[in-house]
């Protein structure tokens, strides 16, 4: 392995499965659908009362891990960061090397407004809802950040954009350690937004299904710790995965609709393959954006088929299990991608009933998932406005079986 290559040394997560990356992966392997009735808000006026909510017990358990903060997303991010640094064998403080923080989000701290809706004048202290950088405050309380701290908000591709920015910073030597991730929390604003678009599913998210009706919000936070391979080896540790390439594009086709030909996604996939010198047939799993909306899935499947060509690409989406966690979605999926490489398991399309004939160009993974060698994972994410970001991950040890 190239000693200068960028690798994943640790992961952490807070998700609808609870606290920790292990809990997240167990839910994926066990095919648990984590969308259900929301307890945090009154959704009686919305077309669905279901979403993927971090369990109340896990939220309460944050008190023993991270300091209080008005924003749940900030606390999710801080907890995931501490777990990821521990997984990497790195201390939160008094650490050799420069640490940078790269975080993606859609809502930032705006869900703080929810507590004031319908209750007269807004009473959110210090206008924290209007300061998205406040999302990073909880991390700064528990981790020494002596490098750049960057908040990215290109829509729902934000988690992958954070990974891309952190990988570039490590590769250039700007930082020695990059904490990269995404965080968002359930929000009435998001429910209102998806309702206005008629994009909410009533019972379940069914990516790539002929009868799919829409998506459901989710929430959480996920973090990857990135370092150079030589630095990880110097601590006597093995990398969890390698960041082989990242690529971004903006097709600028429509504010909310993907380009009908998937032009941006095709460009990012081809760029990742070129940069990593990986062949299309070497991709063992495409971790799809797969929101379950009528507009997205067929376009995405066709674009993947066109970009990869050759044999039918193996494709699935975990949003049927986790909901759509906006800025946290791609980061959670990257953590799952790292685990898929380590465990040689491709997650299934758990809620799939009847594959959409328009997705015939890809190999849709059956709900049970697949065991077998997983050496390369392509994880892609869309954002409103045409933003696309794709990350290509490889096995931590290239010759591992």
UniProtKB/TrEMBL annotation:
SUPFAM superfamilies: Thiolase-like. The keyword Transcription does not apply. The keyword rRNA-binding does not apply. Keywords: Transferase. InterPro entries: Beta-ketoacyl_synthase, Ketoacyl_synth_AS, Ketoacyl_synth_C, Ketoacyl_synth_N, PKS_Beta-ketoAc_synthase_dom, Thiolase-like. Residues 3-395 form the Ketosynthase family 3 (KS3) domain. SMART domains: PKS_KS. It comes from the Bacteria. It holds the Pfam family ketoacyl-synt. Gene3D superfamilies: 3.40.47.10. Belongs to the thiolase-like superfamily. Beta-ketoacyl-ACP synthases family. PANTHER family: BETA KETOACYL-ACYL CARRIER PROTEIN SYNTHASE, POLYKETIDE SYNTHASE-RELATED. This is Beta-ketoacyl synthase N-terminal-like domain-containing protein. It comes from Phytohabitans kaempferiae. The lineage of its organism: Bacteria, Bacillati, Actinomycetota, Actinomycetes, Micromonosporales.
């Amino acid at each position: 392995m190239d000693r200068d290559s960028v690798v994943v040394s640790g992961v952490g997560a807070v998700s609808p499965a609870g606290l920790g990356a292990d809990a997240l992966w167990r839910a994926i392997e066990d095919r648990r659908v984590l969308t259900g009735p929301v307890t945090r808000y009154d959704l009686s006026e919305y077309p669905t009362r279901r979403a993927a909510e971090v369990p109340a017990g896990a939220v309460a358990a944050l008190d023993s891990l991270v300091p209080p903060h008005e924003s749940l997303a900030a606390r999710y991010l801080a907890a995931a960061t501490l777990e990821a640094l521990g997984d990497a064998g790195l201390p939160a403080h008094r650490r050799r090397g420069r640490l940078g923080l790269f975080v993606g989000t859609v809502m930032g701290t705006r869900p703080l407004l929810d507590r004031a809706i319908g209750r007269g004048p807004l009473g959110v202290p210090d206008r924290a809802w209007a300061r998205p950088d406040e999302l990073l405050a909880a991390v700064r309380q528990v981790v020494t950040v002596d490098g750049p701290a960057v908040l990215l908000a290109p829509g729902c591709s934000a988690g992958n954009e954070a990974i891309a920015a952190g990988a570039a910073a490590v590769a250039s030597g700007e930082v020695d350690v990059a904490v990269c991730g995404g965080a968002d929390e359930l929000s009435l604003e998001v429910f209102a937004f998806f309702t206005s678009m008629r994009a909410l599913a009533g019972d379940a998210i069914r990516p790539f299904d002929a009868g799919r009706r829409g998506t459901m919000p989710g929430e959480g936070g996920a973090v990857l710790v990135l370092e150079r391979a030589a630095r990880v080896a110097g601590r006597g540790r093995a990398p969890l995965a390698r960041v082989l390439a990242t690529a971004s594009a903006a097709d600028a086709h429509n504010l909310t609709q993907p380009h009908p030909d998937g032009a941006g996604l095709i460009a990012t996939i081809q760029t990742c393959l070129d940069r990593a010198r990986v062949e299309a047939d070497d991709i063992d799993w495409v971790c799809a954006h797969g929101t379950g909306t009528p507009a997205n899935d067929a376009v995405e499947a066709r674009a993947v088929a066109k970009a990869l060509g050759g044999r039918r690409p193996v494709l699935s989406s975990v949003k049927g299990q986790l909901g759509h966690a906006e800025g946290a979605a791609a980061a959670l999926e990257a953590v799952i991608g790292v685990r898929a490489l380590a465990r040689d398991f491709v997650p299934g399309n758990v809620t799939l009933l009847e594959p959409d004939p328009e997705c015939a160009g890809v190999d849709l993974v059956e709900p049970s998932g697949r065991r077998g060698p997983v050496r390369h994972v392509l994880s892609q994410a869309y954002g409103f406005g045409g933003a696309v970001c794709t990350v290509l991950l490889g096995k931590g040890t290239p010759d591992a079986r």
